[in-house]
Amino acid sequence: MRIFVFLFFTFTFCCSTLFSQEEGFEFVNPPMTIVVLGSSTAAGAGTWPIDNAWVNRFRCHVQAFNPENQVINLAKGGYNSYHLLPTGSETFRRSKIDTMRNMTKAMEFNPDGIIINLPSNDVSGGFSVKEQLDNFRTYQNYADSFGVELWITTTQARNFPRKRKRQLQANVKDSLQNLFPRNCIDFWNGFCDEEFRVLKEYDSGDGCHLNNEGHRILTDRVIESQAFCWELNETSFQRSTSIADQEELSPHMMKIGFLGNLEFDLTQADKSRIVKVVQENRVLNAVEVPSTNYD
Questions:
Q1: How far apart are CA 134 and CA 269, in angstroms?
Q2: Which of 149, 164, 191, 289 pairs as cysteine with 294 (C-beta 3.0–4.6 A)?
Q3: 72 three-class SS
Q4: Rounded to an integer, what distance in angstroms lies between the CA atom of residue 187 and that of residue 173?
Q5: How far is residue 145's CA from residue 246's CA, in Å, rounded to a whole number?
Q6: No. of H helices and E strands in the chain?
Q7: Is 256:6 a contact under the CB 8 Å cutoff?
């Protein structure tokens, strides 16, 4: 017997199988925009060709959910945490805020999220751990005032001649992970030795920037952090254009009417289960469901 079912999704995860729009289907929710701020690593230094840079790799990942999703890269080599402060912030004459590449400019794109990647230029410039953290707190407060999700990457190892500066890099890394326990992406571990020098297999040749393989891992770290996972998955939702009289829905709310079936994976009933939403023999989405929700 055919049963017409409406599903409301109140939980989701980033599926390993990503979707592209096919003939006869349309995306349900609007695309999303992510802005990247930072310095040379985010700008792609150390990679060749530039498509190997972690931001460009991450853009491909984001657009695999929905080709209209955007990753806007405002990073520039040599920049430190003062360059990115919101327009009008106090800089204590450290560096001049770049109003074309800072938090205020990022908000002009009406982003769903922002990633900040500042590997080492603050320590190189002699800035203290405290003032770096103060600037990162400013980023967070500013993003919160707009209701925009903010993710931070840790510092990265750099072959400073003095051990003291290399240790400061590690100290800032630890401090950022403590300050942002839920939205800090690890760009440190696995890239350096016990003296906090960049491992040769990831060194592009200057003791500072990572090579193609390093950037590939950085991309994996961003994805594995599940940054913007919920929103990205929502942008992939599609429905058949053949369904008549589908009601209007608010952004990021999915309601699907379909003639089909639900498929349940019972292999891990004691942990979680996978529910597939199938319409016209097409899997629209796969959702990991805790057993309590499933029951």
A1: 46
A2: 289
A3: strand
A4: 9
A5: 35
A6: 9, 12
A7: yes
Confidence (pLDDT) at 15: 39
Low-confidence ranges of the chain (pLDDT < 70): 1-23, 242-295
By CB atoms closer than 10 A (0-12, 13-18, 19+), residue 22 is exposed
State whether the Cα torsion 208-214-216-218 is positive or negative. negative
Helix (H, G, I), strand (E, B) or coil at 290: strand
| 114/103 Cα distance (integer angstroms) | 9
Q: Which value, to the nearest 10 degrees, does the dihedral of the CA atoms of residues 167, 168, 172, 178 take?
A: 50
pLDDT value, residue 210: 98
Residue type for 225, please?
A: S
State how far the Cα of 48 lies from the Cα of 41, in Å rounded to an integer.
Answer: 13
122-168 residue pLDDT tens: 999 999 999 999 999 999 999 999 999 999 999 999 999 999 999 99
CB 157 within 8 A of CB 194: no
Phi, psi dihedrals of residue 34, rounded to the nearest 5°: -120, 135
Q: Which of 106, 105, 116 is nearest to 79 (CA)?
A: 116
CA distance 117 to 184: 10
Residue 157 burial (10 A CB sphere; 0-12, 13-18, 19+): buried
C-alpha separations of 173 from 79, 133, 160 in Å: 18, 10, 16
- Closest by CA to 44, choosing from 57, 31, 32, 30, is 57
pTM of the model: 0.79
| Amino acid sitting at position 295 | D
Residue partners of 263: CB distance under 8 A and separation at least 6: 275, 276, 278
Amino acid 241: pLDDT: 73
Closest C-alpha to 74, from 47, 39, 46, 50: 39
